[in-house]
Amino acid sequence: MSAIRRAAIYKLAAAAQEVDLEVMTGIAHLEENGRWLVGDHDLLTWLSAHEGEELVLVIGSLADERPVEERTCRTCGRDYMDLECPTCRANRIRLRGHA
Q1: 25 and 12 inside one domain
Q2: Which one of 22, 75, 93, 95 is separated from 32 by 20 to 30 angstroms, measured CA to CA?
Q3: Structural domain tally of the chain?
């Protein structure tokens, strides 16, 4: 896996945790009793706790070998391969004190 893609997945997970969202990491596997686990988290139990809610489920496979595409920032015009333009992020932090 590309180190850039792996870092982007972990950065997305960290951003989700910063806003108190639930994040599961681990190997997905099916137990003999038919229950899906992600690491040691029971997926059915987690989904049952959110029954009736509208959810956004993001799955990032660390085995994904696709290259990360370079993007162009619509604000400053620089090319980047991260979740957001690092130049504009640094400027926001410098000017506002936070991202």
Answers
A1: yes
A2: 22
A3: 2
Distance CA 61, CA 50 (A): 23
Residue numbers in the chain where pLDDT is lower than 50: none
- Give the whole-angstrom CA distance, residue 3 versus residue 75: 26
Contact 79, 72 (CB under 8 A): yes
Query: Domain span at residue 95?
Result: 69-99
Pairs from 2-8 (Cβ < 8 Å, separation ≥ 24) = 2/65, 2/66, 2/67, 2/68, 4/68, 4/81, 5/64, 5/66, 5/67, 5/68, 6/62, 8/68, 8/81, 8/82, 8/83
Q: Are residues 61 and 73 in the same domain?
A: no
56 and 31: one domain? yes
Task: Write out the H or E segment, with its range, that includes residue 95.
Answer: helix 86-96
pLDDT in tens, 43-71: 999 999 999 999 998 888 888 777 778 89
